[in-house]
Amino acid sequence: MESSADNIRSQMRKGVLEYCILCILAKREAYASSIIEELKAANMIVVEGTLYPLLIREKNQGLLSYRWEESPQGPPRKYYVITDKGRALLQEMDQAWNEIVTTIETLK
């Protein structure tokens, strides 16, 4: 049974997941499986069923684009790339995040 703290932690992670995706793609283009691996390595546990709707939403908002690349290990891979609009939003999100962290630190 999930504790109240676990539930809050889960909700907070969901709230910052789109931000995390933009952070990853600002460093380099990536395909979905590599995005999931990086999120898991950062203890931001995510499954494909959660990631794909977010990628589609960010693409539809013009924050991401993608390209196909042949894979030597199976079908072609869809590589996601952050757009200029996505970079601009990421800057705004960075500022908002810093403001939130400052506020919380002030209240502690």
Characterize the structure shown:
This protein is α+β, with helices and mostly antiparallel strands and 108 residues long. Helices cover 66% and strands 18% of the residues. The protein has helices at 4-27, 32-41, 48-60, 84-107, and strands at 30-31, 64-71, 74-82. The chain has a three-stranded antiparallel β-sheet.
In short:
With 108 residues, the chain is an alpha+beta fold. It has four helices and three strands, in the order H-E-H-H-E-E-H. Strands 1-3-2 form a three-stranded antiparallel sheet.
**Class computed from helices, strands and strand pairing:** alpha+beta
Biggest sheet: strands, sense, closure? 3 strands, antiparallel
**β-strand amount:** 15-25%
Report the helical percentage. 55-70%
Compute the number of helices.
Answer: 4
* Alpha carbon gap, first and last residue: 29 Å
Oligomer: single chain
Strand line-up of the largest beta sheet: 1-3-2
Unreliable stretches (pLDDT < 50, length at least 5) are none
> Total strand count, please?
3
How much is the radius of gyration in Å?
16 Å
Describe the global form: globular
Average pLDDT: 91
